[in-house]
Structures are given as structure tokens and as C-alpha cells.
Design goal:
Helix content is about 10%, strand content about 30%. It has one domain: TolB, C-terminal domain (Neuraminidase), CATH 2.120.10.30. The strands form 8 sheets. It has a 5-stranded antiparallel β-sheet, with no helix packed on it. The protein has a 4-stranded antiparallel β-sheet with strand order 3-4-5-6, with no helix packed on it. The longest helix has 26 residues.
Length: about 525
Amino acid sequence: MIHIKVLLLLVISLWAMATLPQVTLHAENNAPEISLKRFFDQLRFINPILLTNSGDGTNRIFVAEQDGMVRVFQNFELISDSHVFLDIREKINSIGNEQGLLGLAFDPNYASNGYFYVYHTEYGVDSTALMRYSVSTDPNIADTASGLLLARFDQPFANHNGGGMVFGPDGFLYLGLGDGGLFSDPKGHAQNTSTLLGSVIRIDVSASTEAEPYRVPQDNPFFNKTTVPRPGQSSERPEIWAYGLRNPWRMSFDDVTSELWLGDVGENSREEINIIQPSLNYGWNLSEGSECFQTSDCDLSQFELPVFEYKHSDGNCSITGGHVYRGGRLPSLSGHYVFADYCSGRVWAIRHKNGITSDPYLLVDSDFLIPSFGMDELGEIYVLSSAGGVYRFEISGNSALIPEPTPPAPLPTPTVIFTPTPRLDQVPTPVPSVQVNSPLPEESKEVSLPTPTPIANVYSVPTPSPTPVPVVQPATPTPTPFERFRLPFEGAPGLGLAIMAIIGVVSLGLVVMGAIQNRQR
């Protein structure tokens, strides 16, 4: 039976990978023609999970693969060779769909100190690790023996490990951690500030040693907190910058405004985009987006609601956070946040200004799985495909893309009214579809994204002592539903989802047949 299953999966995979799509679509109204052009097409990556640059002026691209390999190459479209910069596959557990090498960030002073940081699930133990490595005397090869453990986070389940990791303009390291996994945050981590799970942490790694892996910035909101925490909680963790998050999947700073944008993967019904601010509670698991979660009486005024959210519909199921575009090739896109849905392969852009979020414009409907975006030293954005391709935006036609968001006329009865308030003195207890092309007021930022026909591209929405790493009680990993499918498929529209459905049916049939045989024995 095992051989039959492997053969079926192999046949399906080979069929799906036979061709790479030509992705060219047109935006509506006055938007220009947008396409994704295959870049570095002489290179092939296996389950690419992240693309970034070292910021040292060498114009190199680094691509991290989920199994623990990082490759480096010069940023030339027709480049034909890459170098293995880092190989830590033997240290990484990448069996699960949400496990592996999840984060990579280069030190702001990389050009002088050669430090870079990785975040990954660990082999043989139920935990994730934050590590620092150094480059060797060869600028294209890291020194794998230089690894320094900065933090370890016990993970009770296999999913929701987070992985967004960036340096801020303040020089501190920001890391997004998931709630620990399973369903609905059963251990209540995201609303518990005595654990780091379900939060964004902010730490100082500028002087890391084995004895003092990191320091906590004194302006962190929970630094030297003396208030009495909630019943059942110990004192707040000073590393926490913001909390109430489910599974942060990619976050980035706007190079101009210094806003920290984060895509948080939802559970049952919606995906959300947040601008992360210190001390704020983003609601999970008491709310999902701008709605109460599994209850009708949560107090939404206690939470910072997303600046944008969309429902699970028409193949959309899991947000991939992106970047605010500040490159020079596409001036009409400047200042707009570009993001995608992993499952549907659609890429949108929104603008957020003065508390108002513009209607999103659908830039591209790619029909491949999008695990991550990336950015080069010039600020140009790239799109990764799970099948191994790297793409870059091309633009032509009318130069006007997305108008500045303007405050809409007040509605007589807004959908949601809230006044988010930072809570530093205590731990707080912590959308329907709207008419296309109609902007919403600031208080209502929600969306239901229909399938584009051909492209419906506008939808409305709105020097301290070192602190030890938290220890969350481990538990036996429990099988979890797929939230982030890792399948090397690209092809015709809807092909990925269709193939996943086929695999599911085949697998279910094999399980049933096996059960029948066992019972007959």
C-alpha cells in the first residue's frame, strides 16, 4: 500500500511540475498592466521560504529553503550559478508543513561584523531556536561552527511557529512567535503575557555572548513591570513588544514611516494585516480579525483591530505578509503595502495613511502557492513560488496605480466602532461583505474577496540584566490540519487546490482500505 501511495503522489507531482505558468494579468480602471516576470530562471530552489539581502552593498540575493539551506547569488537576472551560503539541514526538523528554517535576518552592521540570524524548528526536540552565525573568510560561505544559541522556545504542538524576523530602524531584532499551535490556542498563550508565544518580541542582540545571549531594551512596554498580572499568570515577559497574535507569517518595516507591518494567519474565517505598535493587544484568541471568536460578547474595544482583513472565500485561506514598496522601478506603487494569499496565489496592494486604508487593488492572480515575498538592496519586491520560482513585478501602460486613500463620507451605521487604547498598567481581557469600489470609514476595515472576473481588483475594508528564554511546557506533537500546504506545484488556474483535493481523496481511500484489512485480520 505504501508503494502505491508514493507512486500516486509522484505521478501527480511530476504532472503538476511539467510547466511553469506565464503570469500576465491586467488591473482594472486606471491601473497599469501588471505582470510577474520569472527572474533568475536558470536557478531552481527547493521549497523556498524567504528571500532577502545582506544590506552590505554587494547587491547579492539570499534565498532560504525550508529544509535548512541558504543559497546566495549576484542580483543579475540571467545569473546561472549560486553558492551554498549556509547548510544546517541536520539541525532542523522540517517534516511538518509549518516547520523548518522559518526566519533569516542580517545584522544592521553585517558589513563590519559579519553576523546574521536564523530562526528554525529544532531536530529531535519540540522547540524552535534563534541562532546567530558569522560569515567565513569567504563572503559567500557562512561559518557553520560559529552558531550561538540566543533563545529557545518550547513548542507544545507542531504548527504555529511564526517566523517573521526583521531588524528595526532602532537596531533591535523583532521576532514574531505563533501561539503554540493546535486549534483555537487551547493553552491561551496569545492572551498570556507571561509567555512569549503569540507575540512579537523585541530584543537587543548587539552584544550577544553565551553568558548573555541578548538584552531587553528598557523602553519595551513590559520592562520592569510591577503590576499584578492576571490570575494564573506570572509576571509579564519584558521581551514582549505586542501580543494577541495567532501565527505571524512575515513582517516588515516601512523604510520611510518605520511602521511595522505584519500578516497574521487566521483560523476559521479571515486573514488580517496589522501595523504593530508597542503594548497593544491584537485580540487572538478572543477575536479573529474584527469579530469575536467563539463568543459573541468579547469587548473589541480592548483590542487593536487590523488595518485590513479578508474572508476565506474563492480559494483564499492563508495570508502571506509582504512589504511596503519603496523601490525606484515602479513609482506608482510607492508607499503601497503588497501582500498575497498563499493558497489562491493572488497579490494585492493597499495604502494606509492617516488611519485610513484604501480599497485593495488586485495586482496579479498567479495561480501558484506564494510562501513569501522578498526585497533586494534597491527596494524591489520579489515573489516566491513554492515550486521554486522567483518572480519580479513588471509594469507598463498608465502610470497611475492606486489613489491616495481619502476619508469617505460618514455612514449612518458603521459596522464596527472601536477606540484602541494601549494598556500598560494591566493585561487587557482581551465582516460582512461590502459593496465593491465603495471605501469604508476608518472604523470598518473588512473585506470579502470575490474571484476576479477577469480581475475584480478593488474591495473595501478599513544595561539591564539578561532575561532567560521562556520555557513553555512541552507536549506530544498533535497532528494538525494543513494551514500552509507545502507542495511543489505550479500550473493551470486552480491546479494546486485540485491536486491537493486529489491527494486528500487518495490518502483517505488508502487509510480506509488499511483499516478494513486490519479489521479482517
